[in-house]
Each structure stands twice: as structure tokens, then as C-alpha cells.
# Entry
Amino acid sequence: MECIENNTGRDKRYAIQLIVNGDSYNIAVKANTLLVNVLRDQLNLTGTKKGCELGNCGSCTVLLDGEPVDSCLILAIEADGHEIITVEGVAKNSQLDTVQQAFIDNAAVQCGFCTPGMILSAKALLTRNPHPTETEVREAIAGNFCRCTGYVNIVKAVLAAAVTKDRGA
Amino acid sequence: MYLPDFDYYAPATLKEACFNLARLDGDAKVLAGGTDLLPHMKNEVIAPKALVSLKEIQGMQEITYVPGRGVVIGAKATHNALVRSQVLRDRYPSISETAHSMANYQIRNRGTIGGNIVSAVPSADLPPILMALDASVVMAGPHGTRTIPLEQFFVGPRCSVIACDEILTDIVIPDQAATGSAYFKFGLRRSGALAVVGVAASIVVNETRVAQAHVVLGAVAPTPVRAFKAEQLLIGNSVTEALLEEVGRAAADECKPISDIRGSEEYRRDMVRVFTKRALRKALHLPGEQKRGVK
Ligand SMILES: Cc1cc2nc3c(=O)[nH]c(=O)nc-3n(C[C@H](O)[C@H](O)[C@H](O)COP(=O)(O)OP(=O)(O)OC[C@H]3O[C@@H](n4cnc5c(N)ncnc54)[C@H](O)[C@@H]3O)c2cc1C
Ligand code: FES
Ligand code: FES
# Structure
């Protein structure tokens, strides 16, 4: 992170580098710019949603160095030099990820607002724990609120994705 | 929801960070995980002129056992790091379990033990269990470091003795023969809910009698408080259900809860009685409460 010259006071901009979904971006941000706003407004990656903006709902979840975090509570400048995965980076070569397919197959997408965050929390869970129990799934998505219906289909989808992964699909 | 403007510094050393804070003379805030500070700023409760980030400062996040000193936890250790730490799981699983009971996975990845302590929120979860284990806190300032017992750290809601140019660097849990410790929290939901009542207990048992006991109550006074009368009732005695009931009542008498949206004063008082018994049973490895623990 370096300060761009001829910038003063509160309008000062800082040059930072973010590696988002494998691509490197060199951008200028103000100190108070939030990571979620950089992703949505500057990089046009609007898959990351904004809900409560206070760390409660998880709709802004992204992976920072592989770990799920709320991007509404992280200054963009604090993510300088780090790797970020958003929901746009989950599918590979136009091929949906196992977790995404399982959400569709299990009717776990309703309005879809919570889905990007759910998918990322679920992916991180399956990476650190390929065989989670139902309780572990529920705990991993406890920071992702779905206000459409219950969590039954979502939990089913994550458990199904674990099984599909096991079969090597 | 946007943040107000502020200046931002990310010094590479603790010393520089303290000098930065001193120069800004109370107008700056330390930024660790930001999970408490940023919501506070978004809600316009505070508007610091500057933030001094700890992110470039090396270390400060290890959890180690230092023979002769005890378990040393860096202030930047995240809640998930406390959950995963083998050192804590071996020596003080109650700390890992408490961290596991906090917030949600995303917040536990960012929120730190230092931020949880310095926020000094009366319902914070880590201070009661750390106080029950006799923890001390180490603070670095522009002119050196000082160490004080955590018990002397809190002054009131969101108020502590840390100076505006000091940084909390370590939490130290001294070696002791605690035979068991536990934290029980009552929240309105399993996940992400602040404690309505939190009770931490640590105990040393010699043969069958209690040699030492700490009972610390959270969310029922302006700061976490020791329940001294409850502790006294335990010392020198063997524990029976009747004694636990008496101890629970003493703890309920000693707390000073408020009534708010989460619970009335009477309700909190009664929950202190119940949770004191549960925390003690778990600390004593008595059957019956394992399943209902904070995990
Ligand atoms: C959705 C949600 C759920 C939550 N659930 C819980 C919960 O269940 N239990 C609970 O106890 N808390 C909870 N919290 C509160 C918060 O996440 C924790 O208190 C967390 O530990 C704060 O740490 P932080 O690193 O994010 O602190 P920050 O937000 O970075 O800082 C908090 C305060 O401490 C100061 N500070 C931080 N580190 C230092 C340091 N090393 N030296 C000096 N000053 C410092 C800052 O200046 C600031 O005043 C929750 C918060 C959210 C948003
Ligand atoms: S928008 Fe970030 S947690 Fe709700
Ligand atoms: S599908 Fe609508 S919020 Fe979850």
C-alpha cells in the first residue's frame, strides 16, 4: 500500500493491489473505502451482496486468503496484497462448482440473495472439512442469513455437495 | 452504509504505532479486526479522526506456552485461532470453547482477543473466562510496557484503563493447578447473540475439597465481576448439590444486572444462579452439564 502523490487530507487515495478470482487489480482507494464497495462499484463484481452492512447477515461474504469474511467490515486498504475469491470466481471454465450445482439440484436457491455468501461459506467448510456433519454445516452457515424460507434445502445441498465431491465429480 | 472520513496509518512497528497514537492525542483509534470498531463508526457512535492499523506489525498473534510464565496469547490472535490452538486445547479448553461460542464463523476469522478485551463491552465473552483464570494483560506505550491483572483493566461499559497511546500486546495466563474451568453463556440464539448472562468458573480441587475457586459474572454489571461470596462458600468444602445451590444464590445476590431488551433484571439474576451451578459442575467435571456447555 502506498500513498498516491499530490493527494492530501481526507481525500487522499492509496494505491493497492487486490488479487480477485485470480486476476490482479491495481486500484486507488480512500482510507474509508470498504472491500465490498470496491468489489461491487470499482470491479463490477456485483455477485457479492450487501444486506445489513454490520457483520450480521453474511450476504457480503468473500474468501480472503481462503477464509470466509464479511467484506462489509473490512477496509479495502487492509486487503492490500491479499487474495480474494468472490462468487464469480467459483465456477471454472463455465462449469459450475459442485456446491453451486447442489444448490440448484436441491432447490436451495429461492430469491438468491443469500446464495453467493452461502456458497462461499460452504466451499470453505468443505475445503477444511470434507465430511461435515449436519451440525457442522449449520454452524458454518450460521453467519449467513436466508430470509426467504428455512435452511433445510440449503443444508441438504451442502451435505449433497460433500457426497458428490467424494465421488470425484 | 458508509464510513466517515479518517486518516489511516499502518506502521510497521509497535513503537511507531504508539508514537502515532500519542501524536494524534486521543483522536485516533487502533484498528485490529474491525468487527467492533467499524459497526460502531457506521452507526455514528464514534468518528475518530484517524485509525492506526495493527496489520503490518509482525507477530502479536502467536499462542504459546512459555515455561515459568504461562500461556501467552498475542492480542491479534483471532477467535478462530483460539478455537484451533493446540496449546489452548491442551491447557485451557474452556478458552477455545468460549471463542467457539462467539459470533459466527466470518466474524471469528477477523475478530481478535485484544479487540474483545479493549472494547470493554459488559457482555463480551472472553473477559470472564480469562479473569477466572487469573489472566494479566500486557500493554505497550511510547515509553515502555506495563502489565496488570485483567481484573483491574475494566472501569465501566466501554471504558478501561488503557491509555489512548497504548496497545494491548499480550494476554498471559499464569501457570496454575486449575483442575477445571468453564464458561456458560446464555444468549437468545445459538449463534451471533450477545450474552444475556455469562458465567465463568475455575476451580482447584485437592483430594475432595475445593482449594481455590473463581467465579466471574459477565453481562450483569458495568464490567465483568468476581462473585467473591460465592467463591468463599466453596473454599475448603466438598461440593454437593446443596452447596452448589447455595453458591448459585450467593452469585445471584452479588450481581447488579440491568433490565434491557434482552432480559429483565430478575430474569438475569435467576439465570446467574442457574449458570453458576452449571459452570461449576462443568469445571468440576461433574456429569450432567457437558451437553449443554458453550460448545
Ligand atoms: C455479528 C457480530 C457478532 C458478535 N458476536 C460477539 C460475541 O458473541 N461475543 C463477543 O464477545 N463479541 C462479539 N462481537 C463483538 C466483536 O466481534 C468482538 O468483540 C471482537 O473480538 C472485537 O475484536 P476486533 O479485533 O474486531 O476489534 P476492533 O473492532 O478492531 O477494535 C475494537 C476496539 O478495541 C480497540 N483495540 C483493538 N485491538 C487493540 C489492541 N491490541 N490494543 C489497543 N486497542 C485495541 C479498538 O481501538 C476498538 O476500540 C460481535 C460482533 C459482530 C459484528
Ligand atoms: S452485509 Fe456484510 S454481513 Fe451483512
Ligand atoms: S434465498 Fe432469499 S435470502 Fe436466501
In short: The beta strands of chain A are 2-3, 13-20, 23-30, 61-64, 67-70, 83-85.
